[in-house]
Amino acid sequence: MNGKAIPKKRKGKMKMWIIAVVALLAASVGGGILFTAGERREGRNLPIRAVDFHSLKDGTYVGEYEGGKYKWRANQVRVTVSSGKVTDIQLLMHKENRSRDFTGKLYGRVIESQSLQVDTISGATITSKAYLKSVENALNEAQK
């Protein structure tokens, strides 16, 4: 260093800029959390009703979920029922960019247990419920 001290006036301006930037970032994050709170609350409270898997008619059924308040989790599935059991679930359309591993794991749980009352994917509970809702809607058609 050259041994020159930064003047107090300049230190004060720098400190004010740092405070302003931190406050702006905090307000942005807080605003984002408030903006999405309704969507998250709706997703957490989305009911997945029990479907009687013993009364399913064979066939292929399409179900969809509109995706909540902002349509972020809109999706559509095709469910195949054979010999009275769910044998295949295919994701036809979705707004989120979820991998086949995600849907394969979730839908595999439904097929294995022949129930919609399965564990959701950790870290993606709301999305899991949205995808299960589409399956529920398809299976409601399989019971008519």
Automatic annotation (TrEMBL):
A Pfam short name: FMN_bind
Gene3D superfamilies to which the protein is assigned, alphabetical? 3.90.1010.20
Tell me where in this chain the FMN-binding domain is found: 70-142
Official protein name in the record? FMN-binding protein
- Which organism is this protein's natural source? Paenibacillus timonensis
